[in-house]
Amino acid sequence: MAQVEVKAPEKKVRMKRSMIDCDVHHLAPVSAVKDHLPRFYRDQIDLWGWRLPGPIYLNGGVQGLTVDSTPPDGTNPLGGRGDLEYLRSQHLDPFNVEYGILTGSDYSFQASPDPDYAAAICSALNDYTIEHWTSKDKRLKASLFIAKQDPLLAAKEIDRIGSHPDMVQVIVANGAEKPYGNRFYHPIYEACVRHNLPFNIHVLTEGLGINTGPTGAGYVTYYPEYRAARPQVMMAHLASFIFEGVFEKFPTLKVVLQEAGAFWIAPFLWKLDSDWKSLRFQTPWVKKAPSEYFRSNVRVTSQPIEMPPSTELFQQMMKAIYADECLMFCSDFPHWDFDSPLLTFPKLDDALWERIFYQNAADLYELPARRSDQGGAEG
């Protein structure tokens, strides 16, 4: 009888130093979030469904997730069971995540024309996230969802739960009715400053529901076009923050640009600086060059990081976006384009690695220094 060679299982590589992952998507199951809503809305959902805008383009993978991310029982990896153990075994433990910032998965309620309904969903999602995620693992911190359609309702939600120690930022979708520098949103920033919470803009819902179109030229046909156009919307928000004078009015406000790439920022800042010099008489309240506001008030996350054709050019672009001050690692787990912390970047010197993978985020979110080089936070 022929012998069958049995291969030894592959050894899993583990991060030696712990890190902070600024974009871990968790899904709060619809049925569970519904239980946190007022009965008025639960009855409406039973009768008419959720009444929320749906996706308009096909994402990759399985519902946008990696093909191999489904647990053995076939459930959604971060839904259905609310599978914290799966998140631990597939991401937090092997990659030695000291802290993971939860960023949800569905922002469709921020494109709804009904701000009261959107606000109720946000409160339910925030409560569910604390109850079923952050309270069960000290490594997890949460993003506070708001109904940005109504800044007064949004500020009320920030005041309600913004002081909770597990809430580390306010989060909104990139898709919006107005650029985020508009004074319409000032009540939100006043509340962020009151609670010392950064304001995170995460790509999603561009052109969905009440939000403006996904590009300045209108709607595109395919998802690759939609994905490529997302930095356009983020550019509009960044320019709006600067030229509307938000950082002069709210000098301690920090803004995070998430999941739109990073290297486009360099030439965009060059353009903003040039235009500010020649047109500054139109916005005399803008006291500093746009690139200075970026360095002091804006942070950007890495995923999906662009890959220049050479390591030398990569290093130059890292300097051009002030990566040692402003760039934070995010994986986008468990989406199909997830960035592995082991493989995403070329080799970085120790000081720069420390800033990107830990200290920049720790400073922003006021998280403690890592407990050791070998393990993450206890819990």
Identify the strand order in the major beta sheet.
1-2-3-4-5-6-7-8
- Large-scale geometry: globular
Distance between the termini: 51 Å
Report the average pLDDT across residues. Answer: 90
CATH architecture term: Alpha-Beta Barrel
Number of helices: 13
Please identify the top-level CATH class.
Answer: Alpha Beta
What percent of the residues sit in helical stretches (DSSP H or I)?
25-40%
CATH-defined fold name: TIM Barrel
According to DSSP, the number of beta strands is: 8
Notes on the protein architecture:
By secondary structure, the chain is α/β, with parallel strands linked by helices. The chain has one domain: Metal-dependent hydrolases (TIM Barrel), CATH 3.20.20.140. It has 13 helices and eight strands. The protein has helices at 30-35, 39-48, 84-92, 115-132, 151-161, 186-194, 223-243, 246-249, 265-279, 290-297, 311-320, 323-326, 350-365; strands spanning 19-24, 97-102, 140-145, 167-173, 199-202, 255-258, 298-301, 327-328. An eight-stranded parallel beta sheet has the order 1-2-3-4-5-6-7-8, sandwiched between helices. Helix 4 (115-132) packs parallel to helix 5 and helix 5 (151-161) packs parallel to helix 6. The protein is globular, with a radius of gyration of 21 Å. Keywords: Hydrolase, Lyase. InterPro entries: ACMSD (IPR032465), Amidohydro-rel (IPR006680), Metal_Hydrolase (IPR032466). It comes from Paenibacillus naphthalenovorans.
